[in-house]
Amino acid sequence: MVKSFISLTTYTSEVVPKFLIFQDIRNDLPDKRCIQPSLTDLSYRCKTKEVYAMQKNQGFTLIEMMITVVIAAILLTVGIPSFFNMIERNSVSSASNELVAALLYARSEAVRQEGNAIFTPVANGWTVGIDNDLDGAVDSTVLQYAIDNANISIAESLGADTLTYNPRGRAAASAGDSIEISYDGTLKSRVCISLIGRPSIKKVDEGDCP
Predict the structure, then answer these.
(1) Neighbours of 197 (CB within 10 A)
(2) Which class for 111: exposed (0-12), middle (13-18), buried (19 or more C-beta within 10 A)?
(3) 124, 153 Cβ separation under 8 angstroms
């Protein structure tokens, strides 16, 4: 039998064993790959090319797949509620910030246009109108905003249905005036209005507006 030998050597700082790999090339025998475990161990471990191919492409075992599925289920069970809570917090926070920005805009427009700015909350948004002749009626609308999240709703808790800023940028608000923000019908946040019309955000667990 004629055999071809290939010597593979790995270089390190210590003495490294050599592994002898050879292939049987006799015509009447299937091709084999044999490995000598060490220089002192003369027993060769031979496998056919088909066995090598099967071992190389055997993929995942059933146990490995089951473990992966279990781990994925645990991660989903823990992660999905947290993900929905994050969406809720971000939605409420975004609506609260947009509301505060609209109130500050109404105040600045009242000063700029030297008229009354009337902020009117509605179920799915708000409007800001300008009363130039100070007769209590809106002469022009400068802002009309609709909340694009069906889960978010607002409700005003004001002394009047509207909040009016005068040309000096002040509003005649009452103690405890606020605009409430709910998510899926549950109250989550309030935008408190101070006595001079200054807005601030207060979460529900922080108590009522002063």
Answers:
(1) 23
(2) middle
(3) yes
